[in-house]
Amino acid sequence: MQDYTNENEQWDAIKDWLRKNGLSLICIFTITLAIGLGWRYWQNYQLTQKEQASQLFDQLQATQLSNETKETAATSELITRIADELKSDYTKTPYATLSALFLAKNAVGAGDLQTAQQQLQWAVDHAPHADLHDIASVRLARVLLADKKPDQALVVLEKLETKAFAAAKSQVQGDIYVTQGDLAKARVAYQSALNALPADEPIRRYVEMQLNQLPQ
After folding, report:
1. pTM, whole model, 2 decimals?
2. Any idea which fold 54-158 has?
3. What is the pLDDT of residues 100-130, one digit of tens each?
């Protein structure tokens, strides 16, 4: 690099360099600032979304509890309204998926398996976490089986994403194979469920009963 003999020459060199590169520096600074502000805004927006969704979900739970204690048309309508708001305005939060599970549960209780399937399919498609996806998938498979759609139920179960639901998956598969008359596959499925369940898991006794009731 050239040596400058005095401060004036150094300053002239700096001004010359700024004239040549100043616009680039301003652009870089502006872009960096915009990215930083944008990221901060996005974080604040996400936090606000979660807080608002959490408050709505608390309201949904309270209304659901009230509805279970004394069911009325008004509380049922309010549950649907809150759940729909969570699904439309807070789709990417876990609370939206949980609200769909609420609606599906209520639909099953009312004997409306078609609506239950729609809500559970929504939950499967929009679940932000693998665990929620698999919870919704297992429930959807059970509803499909109840609606006499065993082949569709098997397809749903094959798309589970975690090992945590291996036992539930195998148990439902066993139920499906029983309805299809394939007792050999049902036996294998129930045994797989037992193998995946901890020894102290209460549901083991029920699965064992299902296995033992199969004709030899």
Report:
1. 0.75
2. 1.25.40
3. 998 999 999 999 999 999 999 999 999 999 9
